[in-house]
Known about the structure:
Layout: E1 2-6, H1 10-21, E2 29-33, H2 36-43, E3 50-53, H3 62-71, E4 78-82, H4 88-97, E5 101-104, H5 109-117
Parallel strand pairs: 1-2, 1-3, 3-4, 4-5
Helix pairs in contact: 2-3
Amino acid sequence: MKVLLVDDSKAMRGMVRKALLQTGVCDLRVDEAANGSDALAQLAHGVPDLILSDWSMPEMNGIELLRELRSRGCEVPFGFVTRQAASEQMRETAFQAGAQFMLAAPLSVQRVRELLRR
Length: 118
């Protein structure tokens, strides 16, 4: 399984990567991007099985990335990982744009494992 992790914080990418690897899911490959623009450039070389993205990033934020992907017909499963609990408005915006889930850090390894196995 290939996961693209999109976050402008190197520390947050490290934390999410650690949670992903602790799930015990076999053949897990985690690629990283620093923002939505960087993610789009990486997607030109292959589509992952899952995208996990921060909401707030410079250049292109997470919701802009999701909307751009959906406008291109890309239906890869997409979820947000946020540093704080998402507001109801954020959740509504995310789900209307095509996100499958939103997680707040710190991440539960059990919850991440469940999402990866879907």
